[in-house]
Amino acid sequence: MKLIIERAALLKALGHVQAVVERRNTIPILSNVLVKAEDGFVRLTATDLDMEIVEEAEARTEKPGVVTAPAHTLYEIARKLPEGAQVTLELSSDDPRMTLSAGRSRFNLPVLPPGDFPVMPSEDLAVTFSCAAGELARLIDKTRFAISTEETRYYLNGIHLHAAERDGRKTLRAVATDGHRLALAETGLPDGAAGMPAVIVPRKPIQELRRLLEDLDGDVEVSVSEGKIRFQLGAAVLTSKLIDGSFPDYERVIPRQNDKVMRVDRAPFAQAVDRVATISQEKSRSVKLALTEGQLVLTVNNPESGAASEELSADYSAEAISIGFNARYLLDVAGQIEGDEAVFEFADSGSPTRVTDSGDPDAEYVLMPLRV
């Protein structure tokens, strides 16, 4: 095998695929990237057995072939080569190592047999549709902060993606929850997505998909089956297994009848929460919101660090209420709100609170209160 590729093209492709590779692997071949040189391009593949990323890049192929080489080492070498360098990757029959050369630099890297590289089996991905890259990125950004990290509730360790309907409008909806907070975002249902199964996409593929979306304009082709999901993003293809479990009936926990409504300027609210939370207890991070007509008072009492309070103007005219929340959760929600105002809907101090965005009617959040 022998190919010549421009350093920037190699670095971009390696940057996408090597992120899949775990730093510590008990299976040596999983530390490698599969390099396949074909006429006019090179295809790079990396996998962790649950997810696979394949990316193609233009290259001058002098001798087609296939090899596997250490993914992170290859990426670090490409990253440190000078801009504009022409990189030659070569595997000859008289040397068991792959040679990488660029200018006066030369590296010999260990290889493993490409036949040992695991291939993610393809299956019939029955439903295929296209979604704008920007809309897919928005669905991820609005919900991923609420993904649970608790492994015992594995079915919450991802984003629930499914076709839904609200007020007669068909949507593609993303939902994530960790049991303490819930985030929901939706967009118009793409053509062809009506028959898609409801799936749970794991946290790691979500993170890698979001990274790939940063470099993409246009549409993403999404293919779904009961067990796998595939995203075609220009020259890159991400395929992942899905979480085999049932997402809870989240609609039951979204309060639609809360009658106490507060409107508050998002930026001053987030800044005030951040300030008073400075002395909150590390474990609970609790902040009390005391609401009276036209006014919101944020309070923190910590026996070890003291107390803090801050007053804000708020559009509120219902009966007085005091309710506590985790400050981190309040800041996470405030960080996703696009409009100038955040709208909080309360029932009482012990019931879930619904938060909506004045600038995005297709997103909403639920926060469970704390005792304070």
TrEMBL record:
SUPFAM superfamilies: DNA clamp
InterPro entries xref list: DNA_clamp_sf (IPR046938), DNA_polIII_beta (IPR001001), DNA_polIII_beta_C (IPR022635), DNA_polIII_beta_cen (IPR022637), DNA_polIII_beta_N (IPR022634)
Subcellular location: Cytoplasm
Residue ranges of every copy of the DNA polymerase III beta sliding clamp N-terminal domain listed in the record: 1-121
Cited Pfam families: DNA_pol3_beta, DNA_pol3_beta_2, DNA_pol3_beta_3
Keywords attached to this entry: Cytoplasm, DNA replication, DNA-binding, DNA-directed DNA polymerase, Nucleotidyltransferase, Transferase
Gene Ontology BP annotations: DNA strand elongation involved in DNA replication
Residues annotated as domain DNA polymerase III beta sliding clamp central: 135-249
SMART domains assigned to the protein according to its UniProt record, in alphabetical order: POL3Bc (SM00480)
Gene Ontology cellular component terms for the protein in this record: cytoplasm; DNA polymerase III complex
Residue ranges occupied by any DNA polymerase III beta sliding clamp C-terminal domain in the UniProt entry: 252-371
UniProt family annotation: Belongs to the beta sliding clamp family.
Subunit structure: Forms a ring-shaped head-to-tail homodimer around DNA.
Summary of the function given for this chain in its UniProt record: Confers DNA tethering and processivity to DNA polymerases and other proteins. Acts as a clamp, forming a ring around DNA (a reaction catalyzed by the clamp-loading complex) which diffuses in an ATP-independent manner freely and bidirectionally along dsDNA. Initially characterized for its ability to contact the catalytic subunit of DNA polymerase III (Pol III), a complex, multichain enzyme responsible for most of the replicative synthesis in bacteria; Pol III exhibits 3'-5' exonuclease proofreading activity.
NCBIfam families, alphabetized: dnan
Protein name per UniProt: Beta sliding clamp
